[in-house]
Design goal:
By secondary structure, the protein is an alpha/beta fold. The chain contains eleven helices and nine strands. The structure holds zinc ion (ZN).
């Protein structure tokens, strides 16, 4: 089935719950999505845990929302075996939670360097091994794993997978059941983006995260922009996603001290309006 459109499809808009996490609880976010006609939601595990897993699943289902994804698994590298084993157990639990929620994927922020380590190649190897270890459980649970490459500025602390190609190399290595989450904030600068999206193909394009890159960026983590306020060519990236078969959610994920200080209904109204006008 093809779902080609000339502009953003309002029925594919999803809220990543990081966007209003300081203002609202998960139940309030669900209500907010209903008020603003947003059909998909991607909760974070701590937000789900605060309500209870079964209760969260019931609230989202009763609201008629789709769970675009669950944030997040990953953080595989650790200084010792006990730490690596802990990470595996945590990822297996995240897979179970994603299955209970009926999530479209489990987003993996893979982790960076273990404390005190300078062994970047070793950390990247631990990531590939960690994903391979939990993959059979993900497949059996029907939960696709979505590797999210992060901007290289977050390589040490959050994710030592920093380009789509690097993520796809891991996908190639471990086999089916793993794809990528394409977050414009992390990949917009990549000169190989177009080729990497084509390489990923429909099967492995599991998520599409929207925000914008502000100039200047004042904080490496919490100064993402609302779509249209920065320099990312959002229609171009959406077009390339769709040209390669992506027909999934357009998920707005904005980590921003500014937007976290705003009325959350204003944030949702703005993100919907901008999605329709500039994405
Ligand atoms: Zn993202």
């Amino acid at each position: 089935m093809t779902r080609r459109r000339r502009g953003p499809d309002p029925a594919r808009l999803a809220l990543n719950c990081a966007t209003v996490r300081r203002q609202w609880t998960l139940p309030q976010m669900i209500e907010g999505c209903l008020r603003h006609g947003i059909g998909g939601i991607t909760p974070w595990r701590d937000q789900v845990a605060a309500v209870g897993l079964k209760q969260s699943a019931a609230l989202i289902r009763d609201a008629g929302l789709a769970v675009a994804g669950l944030c997040r698994g990953g953080f595989f590298p650790a200084a010792d075996q006990a730490g690596r084993d802990r990470a595996i157990r945590d990822n297996l639990a995240a897979i179970d939670e994603a299955a209970t929620l009926g999530a479209g994927c489990l987003v993996l922020v893979v982790g960076g360097l273990p404390p005190g380590s300078k062994d970047l190649a070793g950390a990247r190897e631990q990531v590939a091994e960690g994903i391979a270890t939990v993959l059979p459980h993900a497949r059996a649970s029907g939960v696709p794993l979505a590797i999210e490459p992060l901007h290289p500025m977050q390589c040490a602390e959050r994710a030592c997978i920093n380009t789509l190609d690097q993520a796809l190399d891991v996908c190639d290595r471990v086999g089916p059941g793993v794809g990528v989450a394409v977050d414009v904030y992390h990949v917009w600068w990549d000169p190989n983006l177009g080729r990497a999206l084509a390489r990923a193909g429909e099967e492995r394009l599991l998520g599409y995260h929207l925000c914008d890159w502000l100039v200047p960026t004042r904080d490496l983590l919490n100064d993402r922009g609302m779509m249209g306020d920065g320099v990312v060519d959002l229609p171009s990236i959406r077009g390339q996603m769709e040209a390669n078969g992506y027909a999934g959610w357009a998920e707005v994920e904005i980590f921003s001290d500014h937007w976290w200080s705003q009325d959350p209904d204003h944030v949702l109204a703005t993100m919907k309006a901008r999605y329709l006008s500039v994405c």
